[in-house]
Design goal:
Number of helices: 3
Distance between the termini: 48 Å
Structural class: mainly beta
Strand order of the largest sheet: 1-32-31-30
Number of strands: 32
Largest sheet: 4 strands, antiparallel
Amino acid sequence: MKSLFILSILLMLIPFKGTPQTFSGEFSENEPSLSWVFSTRQPFYASPFIHDDVIYIGGTDSIFRAINLHNGHEIWQYACGGQIRSTACLNGGNIIFCNGTGELICLKTDGSLQWKFNGGYETHYDFADYHQSSPGLNNGIIYWGSGSGIFYALKADSGELAWKFETGSHVHTTAAIDQESVYFGSFNGYMYALNLMDGSLRWKFKTVGHQYFPKGEVQGSPVIIGKQVIIGARDYNLYALDKEKGYCHWNKVYTLGWVLSASFYDSTLFIAGADERILAAINPLDGSYLWKNKMELLMFGKPAFQDETLFIGTTIGKLHAVDIRTGKEIWVFNTPSYEKNRFRYFKPDDSYRDDIYSIITSDLHFLKVEEELGGFFSSPVLSRNRIVASSTDGNIYCISLGSE
């Protein structure tokens, strides 16, 4: 396996206590500004979830928090005993998330416990398996995968098991759901389509595999576009699978690494490459590029969209605003951690220093570096003309795009 090439489990945070930096680059008519920063002492991998002006998010400090969107003040916290690396979902007045001990937890919006479900043991597949499956909700049923290799359907009001499906390996993708089926991938290299009602298998698709990842582990989360399900795997392939039959309509093969993030917006497929280091707009019918940008480092989160702009973070500690029509960068926000530590590892153009392999000597060391830079492994979220983004420097950043 190539060194310095896949990313995941970050350990302890090196906190930053300086003054937040300002934006750089060109601005749109709504000039952005930093509204507030919420700080902890451990990294965030989970993405924020926002409801009624409250941010809900869990961290690797095993604490799930409710935070005021307007001022960044903590409303309550719930200690759950295991690292939280998944994004929460909402069921009526309840917030549902999972933790690193294999529990799916349902809290009321006041922070009190509604129910718990024990999904068995929860483990990481390897050091580059840095997210847990985020629960999805459809018609009162929660769909959720576990590191135990089991995909669950649970009744959202009680946590009672409706059905389960065993894959034999870690399920850390977040499922895509339509009227009849639920779609998800496993680290065994298969993509699955199951019947929503009883969990029976409709089809499964085996990835090709790769020299470094012969199983073709499915680590990306699927997105449904028309009659296709788009999924990225560790075998350097992006697949467009038939939603009904499971055969492949088209695939794109990459040369540098994974393309795990896929999103659909305004009739366009947007992909963010991990090791491939590209951000691209694609015609979902045939996989052809509409535009493609080289990025300074890796991307694992999905973008957020507002009108004709997308927002996405990279693991170097930058949050980009990009025109979805042209791919042109509108502005970029640098974390204070990036500004403080960048020249330890990068040249002024954000390419690696010539002596980087004498500085960073292992994959785990590389992960520590991304902590120091405040890398974004999560997806930003938009609410009331604000962007909220969680970082591996232990901070949550709230950026205002203008008047609300």
